[in-house]
Amino acid sequence: MVKIATRFIHVISLGGLVVVSTMVAPVNSGIGRPCLRWSQSTQKTKHAMRFETTLVGEMRDRDGIRLAFTVFRASDGTKLTLTHHRFDSPLEAQRYFDKCVENASKVASNTTTKDKSGATVRQRAEAILPTDKDSGNSNFAILWTNGSEFQEIISESREHSLLFEKQVSH
Prior knowledge:
The chain has helices spanning about 90-100, 160-170; strands at about 5-15, 15-25, 35-40, 50-60, 65-75, 80-85, 105-115, 120-130, 140-145, 150-155. By secondary structure, it is mainly beta. It has a domain at about 50-170: TM1622-like (Protein Transport Mog1p, Chain A).
């Protein structure tokens, strides 16, 4: 009998955040597909809000930039998409961030954090994206850079996006 896959489960608890990471991979391949679940209690709901992975993949944007994405479903059914890319430099990440902010229908906030020398180390924006042609709904986005990393959370719910951001950005 040949064993073709191994499942690894890691559980980490940080305060109210529980991260369950499952890796499924062919034995000795060093390759796995992560499946993540997060849960955190909120003061408003008084119960744990859980985010479970439903889809993981890669896509290319209009300019050919390859972005990794993970689609999550909250315990109340709300869908969120996390996209990310590690650029070759912080400047490239900043340029991509600026392009995404320019394409937003409305920017609710846009902040920049600089180090002691005045160099930008983090950018963050909250924005409303153009209306989705298929659903007719507008999506809320939180975008940020951290050095050469670009990340974006997209959902119809601002509340879910903010809660999810707290969980993935720390």
